[in-house]
Amino acid sequence: MSSSPPSTTRRPARVAIVGSGPSGFYAAAALCKQDRIPVEVDFYDRLPTPYGLVRGGVAPDHQNIKGVIRVYEKLARGDRVRFFGNVAIGRDLAIDELARHYDQIVIATGNESHRRMGIPGEDLRGVYSATEFVGWYNGHPDYRDREFSLETARRVAVVGNGNVAMDVTRVLAKRAVRLASTDIASYALDALGRSAVTEVHVLGRRGPAEAAFTAKEVKEIGSLEDADLVVDPKDAALDSESERWIAEHGTPGARRNVEYLLEKSREAPRGLERQVHFRFLVSPIEFLGDHGTLEAVRLERNELHLDSSGTPRPRGTGQTWVEPFQLALTAVGYRGLPIPGCPFDERAGILPNLAGRVRGADGAPLAGLYAVGWAKRGPTGLIGDNVADAEETVRHMLDDLERGIVMPRPGAPSPPAADGDDGASIQRLLEARRVRWVTFEDWTRLDALEIERGKERGKIREKFSSVAEMLAALARPAK
Ligand code: NAP
User: Fold this and answer.
1) Which DSSP string do the residues of 135-187 spell out, in sequence order?
2) In the predicted model, what is the mean pLDDT of residues 105-121?
């Protein structure tokens, strides 16, 4: 561990943030707005584009949520922040190499994978994670080549009761024309335009009182112009465990969900062309299909029991049946992926940490390594929740800087670092490796091109959905 503060009048402290989604940007904001220690921030993102889930996750019909980008943009244009897009840590640069150029590294990579259900048939064609579907309609380069058999799927099962389940349900239940002017990928818009889907069944393993979705999201489904929200009164009614639980522990949001679903269960459907069925206390236990393709789902009725903390949990009753479904999207949560060279808690799918300080195998904090957002706490909370989360980590980072705790640099005199490093050495290293990094200026050009391409199609934006396309566009002379 080094022992003298790196930030002197000679140079500011140098921080690398790996990942440029909301949590990374809120960490940069907290670092830039404080006046304890001068800091310079470099973002690294494996994609040429910034903003993480705001670009690749937020649904195209929720443009208002994407307004946060304006704040991130202002920060990224500041003279203390640089963007290195198209640079993957663990592929183009090892974390140890990064460590030689920075006093501190913040992992802000979110949760790039999804939880599996762990039931038979999950790998059939026709069974996908909602993460893949979301990435696909949002033009994410990892998912653009996926196919979702929309032309042949009439009944779709959406498993899970979170806000991701609400997003994919809305996209499936809306007529494609309603999404036509958004930034949805055109290939997805075309495929949704050919969709045969008439019924979406949202399957909650617990009851309406325990649902994770927010009241705003469920009400949006209930107000769709192309689909009726159908709730069986038996499903909307609470069992005695939930009645007691919601009275004693229920949040106002959970109460609003219960009231709204009860109200909906009493309404007659409007007879619209599509139906969204909210069903509770039901779990898929097997995906069934011939020739590798989903045809049906075996379902089981659940009941609730209280665990040792008094929380209602689902338990199968043994009552099972089979229903036809041609597409199933599992929206049962995201999961983090390990970063080569960084500790990883396999069970929780996050970096093991204490309030943002990443811990080593012995449980002690590793000097100079931090985590924010979903990489720190797992896949919970809304975008805004990352503000306080990042501020907590940054407080510890500044405390550590003041105490001279920075990245150890094996084999180098202490602290060498970034001393005398004007920030150009990392660029020289990337150049030597022939890594074509994308600067924020480059991204600004891509952004303008996407908006221009969108205008031609009557959309607010037509995204580039492959890295090769993005680099080719940047290689063409600017008009
Ligand atoms: P989530 O809110 O954690 O919901 C996951 C859902 O999956 C829960 O209903 C959970 O049920 C269920 N589940 C887990 N394992 C299951 C299993 N084996 N079988 C059946 N159901 C299972 O996660 P998310 O929807 O992925 O969202 C992640 C975060 O992003 C959330 O904080 C969410 O609010 C946020 N988000 C917000 C928006 C928005 O603001 N519009 C949009 C998208 C996402 P249990 O409760 O029984 O565990």
Assistant:
1) HHHTT-TTTTT----TTT--EEEEE--SHHHHHHHHHHHS-GGGGTTSS--HH
2) 96
CA atoms within 13 A on the CB side of 91: 11
Query: Which element (helix H / strand E) includes 106?
Result: strand 104-107
pLDDT in tens, 248-286: 988 999 999 999 999 999 999 999 999 999 999 999 999
Determine what percent of the chain is predicted with pLDDT higher than 70: 95
Residues 6+ apart with CB under 8 A from 382: none
Q: What residues does each domain of the chain span?
A: 13-112+336-438, 115-333
Encoded tokens for 141: 């380069």
- Reported pTM: 0.95
Residue 460, SS3 per DSSP:
coil
Ligand 1 midpoint to CA 244 (Å): 23
Pocket test for ligand 1, best of 205, 305, 313, 350 (most atoms within 8 A of CB): 205
Name the 3-class secondary structure at 394.
Answer: helix
Going by CATH, does the domain composed of 13-112+336-438 fall within 3.80.10.10? no
Identify the burial level of 362 via C-beta atoms within 10 angstroms of its C-beta, where 0-12 means exposed, 13-18 middle and 19 or more buried.
exposed
Instruction: Decide yes or no: CATH 3.30.380.10 for domain 115-333.
Output: no
**What pLDDT digit, counting tens, does each position of 154-167 carry?**
999 999 999 999 99
* Distance between Cα 390 and ligand 1 center (Å): 22
Average pLDDT over the chain, rounded to an integer: 94
